[in-house]
Design a protein that fits this description.
42% of the residues lie in helices and 19% in strands. It has 548 residues and is an alpha+beta fold. It has four domains: 36 residues, no CATH class; 89 residues, Pdz3 Domain (Roll); 205 residues, 2-enoyl-CoA Hydratase, Chain A, domain 1; 99 residues, no CATH class. It has a six-stranded mixed beta sheet with strand order 10-11-12-15-16-21, sandwiched between helices. It is globular, with a radius of gyration of 29 Å.
Length: 548
Amino acid sequence: MKSKRILFITIAFIAITCGLTALRNDDKSFEISKQLNIYATLFRDINMFYVDEVNPGDLVTTSIKSMLKSLDPYTLYYPESEMEEVKLMTTGEYAGIGSVISKKGDHVIIREPYKNSPADKAGLLPGDVIVAIDGTSVKGKNTEEVSALLKGQPGKEITIKVQREFEPKPLEKKAIREKIQLPSVPYYGMVNDSIGYIYLTSFTDKSAADVRAAIIALKNKGASSLILDLRGNSGGLLDQAVEIVNFFVPRNSMVVSTKGKVKQWDKEYKANNNPIVPDMPLAVLIDRASASAAEIVSGALQDLDRAVLIGERSFGKGLVQTVRDLAYNTKLKVTTAKYYIPSGRCIQALDYSHRNPDGSVGKVPDSLISEYKTQAGRKVYDGGGITPDIKIPAEEFARITQELVFQDLTFDFVNTYALQHPHIVPLQDFKVSDELYNEFKAYLNKKGFSYETESQIILNQLIKAAKDEKYYDGSKKEIEKLQQDFAHSINRDMDLFKDEIITFLTEQFIQRYYYLEGVIEYRVKHDKEIAKATEILGDKKAYTDILN
């Protein structure tokens, strides 16, 4: 009798639970149906009654993008017209002329033609102002619109009209579109006789193969230790990150796991193969722009005590996105899970699920940050990116240096110089001489270069407030004295901060004449993080002490 009563109570409990679950599911289904019905009727009435004609496609796309923006920056909708962007994101490949373009004032300009690209072969140069593409004026268009005109069917000729400095009339350049493959490893080489260097910029479907090829090539050149540079790498495909970690760690090592609301996203990713360099000393460089897959690689190697991390704390993106097919050849890139590196930590820095009343997103508070342990027992933490083993803070530049870059004056000067001097000395011999630096100063004077220091900006705000509040006349002498004290001389500042200005100017010259590969080759010899990595890898005891 007692067992029957228990059975009855159990059945009743299960029935009530199922009923409540069904009720909750019904409530949710009703709410979804209700909101979709509201949206449909609203859209119908806007389309019928709005005073001006509306484009239904644009209206829906705008509403979708606004809706997704309220979730996180990584959940994105791609209409059919943006399928090339999806392809570029996953493969690093697109069909076009192979050039970076940017907005400059009211115009779109050629910023950087890739070496040996159609743009480069056609003779397009940095600084060229794009006037028209295949007879279509680009006046008033933004970079996305101009980019769409430059891309298209490979093998097809395209005519680009540009205005170039010193040329009285626009020039017409003909380029043949090609499939452009952006390399995920634009450079690798030897730092010295025993240390190899690999610069990895993205995680596309070819990244692991590119890194593997670079490792093997460097080993053949005599590399006995390695620097992997992930600075500025914003991430990409998770499986490529796992494969790259596998080059350095034993088979079956846990690399990363993911957990989502839907069980199908709960996965574990392990090293499936034997490593190709299991014992090679490794230093990994990261900065505040290293994110996502770059953090999986650096974080997993740190948690497994396989590499010394050097640089700044990384970005802190612990979210995983999945690309899903939608109707009419559209796609959705949606955040489906959080990832956890081998120590068990999630390094997501911003909490998008709990926004502030004004809609802003706050960082994970210190009170919620937890301590974890690496395989060897070193302390590591979640909730805010990957903290390197050796911290090297970002360099702070003088206001004049910042303004020269922000106002694009180093770029403009180098382009003007290059049009008058088509060739310079070999890369290894190039330096900005005093004569060239004085030429730059004269150029700035001719252009009327000016800027305000932070202290001048604050003082001007103080003067305005004093005048508004009728205090200025009584403090006029003191304020004028402050103005004199805070006044700056551009010539004096150009001399005072000459070294850091020359650093930027040198890189601009090298990029103009020797492309991106030249800039990286220059940085390998002059970069402080690479110098520190070289020092640590050259000191076996220091390297081992950090990892232990």
